[in-house]
Every structure is written in structure tokens, then in C-alpha cells.
């Protein structure tokens, strides 16, 4: 039997209960079974993001479709500030550069993050309608202090939109208390379901901006999806375009398992596991891409190498039964790889990963303190 531990940045290892929940051959999008799981999923998404009064959306696609759907809330000629800590922060820029809006980007060096006061300084210079933030930058593992940023800028901007693709389900998220207008994610990251759905919670203030004057395309226009979501919230079926029916059964099961674990417990588990990963990396003498400890995330760790080729490390790790993720930040090309530690990852996965990584690096000739990584993991997990 071939066994593999998936320590990638998404999709993650999927619990078999989640996978089996989608094994249904006779369920339609108007059926009571689907209506029930859709209603539950929308309700739990609000709970997960601490957004009880927000409208939840589950739409086909993924994190990028959720991001692009924000065009529904924007009019021609409005001013958008993108706060980017890496490749996926830059994705906001790539999305909005295709629309008739005025765009400005604050961009951090690889491994760093834009400070709250830097964002405040920028929004005070001229009128900004929309600010986009990335909670955890998947390309580097850097976490932005979302609550602090929003507190600084809330009185100066109309909408604050947060990409929580690599945070929701593993980091503290309080969309309503923090006064974020939109928090979005995807099904395949820390939630631990298969890819295929974009998930959002949207404030009533943001919903008021939905209009025929928006710059949105047809398919991702939230005006088309809003009556569908409202109907499911009421336990009724509705249609605009076909939802990923079987995926949503799996998503609902993932939410059920998350609820059973407890959201706070789940965040705590991610904190412990991520601390152990970092302890292992630093224990063997390697550097982490994220430069500031306060910006370490619970979900992704970038690992810098001094000598060997990261692609060789990834190839050999797969032969050891563990799949990691390549580095994608262009400024660090050929210098690092990433470890994903989210979803259903457990303590034994961490030990296996660091143990195999030490062996692989030793064989490839990377100078490390062999054995010290595993020791550091054990000490962290037992403390």
C-alpha cells in the first residue's frame, strides 16, 4: 500500500469521513438533502468567521473566484488600495488591473509584512474606497495583523476586504467584531475539504453596494448569488447556476467535524503544530522565510535553504512518503520551499515531516544539525 502524508499548502489531507460524505449518486440541487446541508454550511461559515449578522456565500470555484466576486461591490472609477505581502496579495492587483478602477499597491519585501501604520499613512493621503488585505500570505507564511490594520483605517475607507484563504479554520477570525466588510476563503485549505468552492461572509453595509453599476462580470456577480443564498438560509432551494453539490456535502461534513473539535481547540491545535514545525526547522539550523515572530502563521512555513536545490528536496521527500510545496515567491526563487500544516494535520505528521526532512537534507548535503530538529519538535510538543 502506498502511503503519503500531504504537508502541502492546499489541498490538504482530507479526512475519510469528509470524502465519503460526497459519495452520493442520486442527489439533486433542489433535493431536501442538499438544501439541508447547504443551509447548515452557510450557518456554520458565519460561526467559523464570527460573523452572525453577515450574509454567507458558497460559490463555485475557489479562493480566486471568491476574490474576483468582490468586483460586485465596486463601481467604475473607484479607488482601491492593495496591501500585499507576497504572490497572493499581488493577485488582488492582477484581478483589479483588468477593471476600470484606480489601483495602488503597498508591497512588502519577501518575508515581511506591511505595518498597520503604513496602511494608515496611505489611506490618509487621498480617498480610498476599498482596501484589500491578505490575512496569511500563502507564498511566504507571513501573517498580517488584520485586527490592528482595520482598527487604524476603518474611519477612512468604505470597504475592507480580507483574503482569509490560508487563515480561516486555523487562525482567529472575528469578522464582525473587527469590522471587516468581507472575509473570504476556499474549501481546500484549513477547512480540510476538497477544492472547488469559494466561501465568503459579507456585511450588510457591503451588500448595499451591490448594483447594476458594479464592474462585475456575470457569473461572479454576487447579485445573482444573493437570492440563492437567502433561499437556502430559509431552507428553500433556489437556482442561478449549479453549485458543486457533492463537494458541499463534503464541506458540511468538514464543518461538522470542526464543530465537534471546537473552533478554539482547532485554532489551538494549529498553533501547537505550527510552533513545533518552526522549532524543528530552527533546531536543525535553517531559517524561516517569515522574518518577524509576530507574523508567523498557523498554516504555512517557508523554509530557506543555503546550498541544495529545493526541487531536489521536494522530489526526495515524496520518495520518503511526504509531499511538501514548492516556493513560489519570485524574489526567493530557487532558495526555499514551503510546509503546509493545516486542516487535519496532527502531531505525528509533524514528527514524521521533520524526521524525513533531516534525512533528505543530510543525503543532499545541506549543512544542518542532524537530529536536533526532531529533538526540538519533541520538546515543543511535550511542553
Structure description:
This protein is α/β, with parallel strands linked by helices. It has two domains: 127 residues, Aspartate Aminotransferase, domain 1, CATH 3.90.1150.10; 245 residues, Aspartate Aminotransferase, domain 2 (3-Layer(aba) Sandwich). It is 40% helix and 16% strand. The protein is built from 14 helices and 14 strands. The protein has a seven-stranded mixed beta sheet, with helices on both faces. Helix 4 links the parallel strand 3 and strand 4. It is globular, with a radius of gyration of 21 Å. The two termini are 35 Å apart. Belongs to the class-V pyridoxal-phosphate-dependent aminotransferase family. Pfam families: Aminotran_5 (PF00266). Its cofactor is pyridoxal 5'-phosphate. It comes from Candidatus Acidianus copahuensis. Keywords: Aminotransferase, Pyridoxal phosphate, Transferase.
**Structural class by sheet pairing and helices:** alpha/beta
Low-confidence stretches: none
Helical content band: 25-40%
Order of secondary-structure elements: EHHEHEHEHEEEHEHEEHHHHEHEEEHH
Query: Mean pLDDT, rounded to whole units?
Result: 97
CATH architecture of the largest domain: 3-Layer(aba) Sandwich
Work out the strand percent: 15-25%
Distance between the termini: 35 Å
Evaluate the radius of gyration.
21 Å
CATH superfamily of the largest domain: Type I PLP-dependent aspartate aminotransferase-like (Major domain)
What strand order characterises the main sheet?
2-10-9-8-5-3-4
How many helices in DSSP terms?
14
Q: Class of the largest domain, according to the CATH hierarchy? A: Alpha Beta
Q: Major beta sheet, specifics?
A: 7 strands, mixed
Number of strands: 14
As for the CATH topology of the largest domain, it is Aspartate Aminotransferase, domain 2
Shape: globular
Structural domain tally: 2
